[in-house]
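Design job #97: recover the sequence.
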């Protein structure tokens, strides 16, 4: 009898979990239908020679969705009472870097460690010089003003960036330029500490 009761409980739990998962899947399918429709009718799946067209269209989508993500991040920051620096260095930074994570995973699966590392470092170099320099240039041209920030407002972020570079170079040198499991754990732990620093220093 105890065995039958256990089977009934397990069956009920499994049914409840599958029902919850199906409701969540249906919700995700519902809100993503406009995106699927838009992607299916604007991207060329059959013609491989039109990869440049697909690449440009993906860039346009990336710009539009990034703008929506910034608005959502700003709203979330207002709800959580976070300032612009903390929102930009956490939610928005994570959202814009997810594609880099996927590229790193693909490169790591194929054993291309150098590509995985260069992708992460190269994207940060691009962000620092282009993502900061180009908007600042446009602001100076159209507004005829310099981009200003409060004194010391970005000091913690800049120091964290320098420290992350030192930790990365040190771990790669120590492990003979290999991304080992201990090195990966150290990177994840370091980012967790950084997130805690950002929120507790708010």
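Job complete. Output follows.
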């Amino acid at each position: 009898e105890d065995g039958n009761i256990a089977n009934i409980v397990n069956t009920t739990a499994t049914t409840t979990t599958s029902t919850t998962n199906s409701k969540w899947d249906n919700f995700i399918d519902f809100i993503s239908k406009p995106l699927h429709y838009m992607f299916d009718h604007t991207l060329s799946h059959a013609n491989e020679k039109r990869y440049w067209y697909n690449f440009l269209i993906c860039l346009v989508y990336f710009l539009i969705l990034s703008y929506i993500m910034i608005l959502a991040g700003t709203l979330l920051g207002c709800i959580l009472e976070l300032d612009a620096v903390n929102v930009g260095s956490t939610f928005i930074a994570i959202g814009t870097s997810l594609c880099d994570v996927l590229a790193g995973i693909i490169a790591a699966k194929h054993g291309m460690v150098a590509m995985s590392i260069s992708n992460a470092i190269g994207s940060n170099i691009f962000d620092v010089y282009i993502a900061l320099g180009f908007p600042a240039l446009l602001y100076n041209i159209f507004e005829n003003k310099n981009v200003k920030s409060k004194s010391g407002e970005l000091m913690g972020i800049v120091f964290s960036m320098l420290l992350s570079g030192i930790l990365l170079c040190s771990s790669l040198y120590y492990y003979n330029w290999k991304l080992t499991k201990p090195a990966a754990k150290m990177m994840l732990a370091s980012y967790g500490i950084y997130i805690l620093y950002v929120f507790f220093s708010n």
